[in-house]
Amino acid sequence: MKKQNTKYIFVTGGVVSSLGKGIIAASLGVLLKSQGHKVTIQKFDPYLNRDPGTMSPFQHGEVFVTEDGCETDLDLGHYERFIDQNVSRLNNVTSGMIFWDVLTKERRGDYLGNTVQIIPHVTNEIKRRIFQVAEENDFDIVITEVGGTVGDIESLPFIEAIRQFSFENRDDCIHIHVTLVPYLNTSSEFKTKPTQHSVKELKSLGIHPDLIVCRSEYPVATEIKEKIALFCDVKADSVIGCVDSDSIYKVPLELEKEKIDQVVVRNLGLRKRKNKLKDWIKYTSIIDSKGLPSVNIGIVGKYNLLSDSYLSVVESIKHASAANNCRATIVWVNAENLEKSDSMDALKNLDGILIPGGFGDRGIEGKIKAAKYARENNIPYFGLCLGMHIAVIEFARHVAGMEDANSTEFSRDCTFPVIDILPDQKKVRQKGGTMRLGAYPCQNRPQTKLYEAYQCETVSERHRHRYEFNDKYKKELEAAGLVISGTSPQNNLVEVVELPGHPWYLACQFHPEFKSRPYKSHPLFRSFIKASLSK
Ligand code: GLN
Questions:
Q1: Ligand 1: residues whose CB is within 6 Å?
Q2: What's the pLDDT tens digit per position in 310-323?
Q3: Distance between CA atoms of 461 and 514, rounded to whole angstroms?
Q4: Contacts of residue 470, Cβ cutoff 8 Å, sequence gap at least 6
Q5: What's the CA gap between 528 and 530, in Å, rounded?
Q6: Would you state the pLDDT for residue 305?
Q7: β-bridge partners, 498
Q8: Which among 386, 393, 408, 411 is the best mutation to test ligand 1's pocket, defined by most ligand atoms within 8 Å of the CB?
Q9: Domains, the chain, ranges and CATH?
Q10: How far apart are CA 478 and CA 483, in angstroms?
């Protein structure tokens, strides 16, 4: 079934991967939303995993969790942060999901004896997902980003599906193709051939781009854009420059200067309205201010080679720094190195220490050393999920005298399992999508750092975990001085712990990083950065 009046924008990429299609889709979303349109952004991921929940952050970067508890691609985090709006499980579609659904229908007998094929069964399933996301909230505009690079075998069913979709909804669709325009230093010139080839490839699959966004290291001259327009068969004003930027949050304003939104609304037959970008202008001007005080924030983790693994945490720190009118420098501390070393020099110049989420026992003892160092040296400490487990284990061992306190995730038969598997998780056998996921409420205890930060009694935050504070040790740890400042109202799970008498030592079971937005920074990050700044 087709929703009336919705417009569809498809974003594909060519030449190479990692061109920042997600940021471009999100930035276009910002511009269209600022004009008063109801916009959502969807991502197609052509891999066979059902979702990225079971993938290593080394390979795939962070797993972003939606309010409704779906483990999704990190681009959905960009979408939420940019358009300042929650997305749902409908916004991330993988090949795995599509095939899963097609095969479930096949087993049920839904195809009534037909041979089940990529065309039409798989493509129909993909097209259904585009309508489904549009109908979810009666959106005016759906932007759909197709992951991967045009020409990949994996993405062919998605490309074919959007080709059919545009054919069937001709007046309501446009295609944006993002390419790379490299600059050759040796001959001092831009090269348009990769773009020409990429567009040729896209056309060979039946899709004619309406706009071409040129990613480049330096601004692309008008003559080059005109050349691309001529060779690729698009209007000259539909070749949009998108030069590398020192902050992703400048991209919406850069694309506005290139008038991408004007070309898009013209092509979709929408009326041009004024952009309202006050918040963006203000936010980016803070990023650019000179002479801001700086804070060094250490992130102690094990996926440190790729900051994408902790993407939302890094973005939240940036938002909170802007809110505090300072600039944070992130110092990556490798937990495994810390574990092996006798020296704590790696932590010496830090104004704040953050331990993010994680799984498995690698580097755990290093993280415990970092938490101890923060506690003993009055350095602001912020623990997220695993970072809360670390804080509780450290406190139990070194303050409450429970010598081999641990989490049963790392040591099944320790004497003091202060962190233990959630009762509901005991019977879980399947790994994918079975953690405690998504938004749950948390009750904040007045007169705590937690309450001070949020300034309210109940909040809702997103979760992704199997292990929890073990209630059996609550009394003993509280008696030793640990403050339980946040609990889940339904089942009394410990959600937040903190240490009184310390400048700022707070650790939460949930992941606040998923809810921070550039000019609406998260209260806990804001409070943590503030404390780090005054250290
Ligand atoms: N590994 C821990 C658990 O499963 C923490 C998870 C996390 O940090 N997201 O509970």
A1: 357-359, 385-386, 409, 464-467
A2: 999 999 999 999 99
A3: 8
A4: 417, 418, 419, 420
A5: 5
A6: 58
A7: 483, 506
A8: 386
A9: 7-283 (3.40.50.300), 290-534 (3.40.50.880)
A10: 6
Asked whether the beta carbons of 243 and 220 are under 8 A apart, the reply is: yes
Which pair of tokens denotes residue 454?
Answer: 């949020």
What does the pLDDT look like over 122-172, one tens digit per residue? Answer: 999 999 999 999 998 899 999 999 999 999 999 999 999 999 999 999 999
Q: Is 502 a catalytic residue?
A: no
Q: Which residue reads 């902050």 in tokens?
A: 247
Ligand 1 pocket test target in 354, 389, 510 with most atoms within 8 Å of CB: 389
Residue 114, SS3? coil
Helix (H, G, I), strand (E, B) or coil at 150: coil
What angle is formed at CA 103 by the lines to CA 101 and CA 105, rounded to 5 degrees?
A: 70
Ramachandran bin of 148, using left for φ above 0, alpha for ψ from -120 to 50, beta for the remaining angles:
left
Closest CA to 352 of 338, 369, 370: 370
Angstrom distance (rounded) from CA 457 to CA 443? 6
Q: Residues 241-278: pLDDT tens digits?
A: 999 999 999 999 999 999 999 999 999 999 888 899 99
Q: Which amino acid is at 185?
A: N
Structure tokens at 201: 């490839």
Angstrom distance (rounded) from CA 109 to CA 339 = 56
Question: Please, which residues bridge with residue 242 across strands?
Answer: 215
Task: Give the sign of the dihedral formed by CA 447, CA 453, CA 456, CA 461.
Answer: negative
Say if residues 140 and 185 touch (Cβ distance below 8 Å): no
In DSSP terms, 459 is beta-bridged to 442
Which spans in 324-400 are helix H? 335-340, 364-376, 386-398
Which residue intervals of 205-270 are DSSP H helices?
A: 222-232, 251-257, 260-268
Hey, CA dihedral for 286, 292, 293, 296, is it positive or negative?
positive
Nearest CA to ligand 1 atom 5: 386
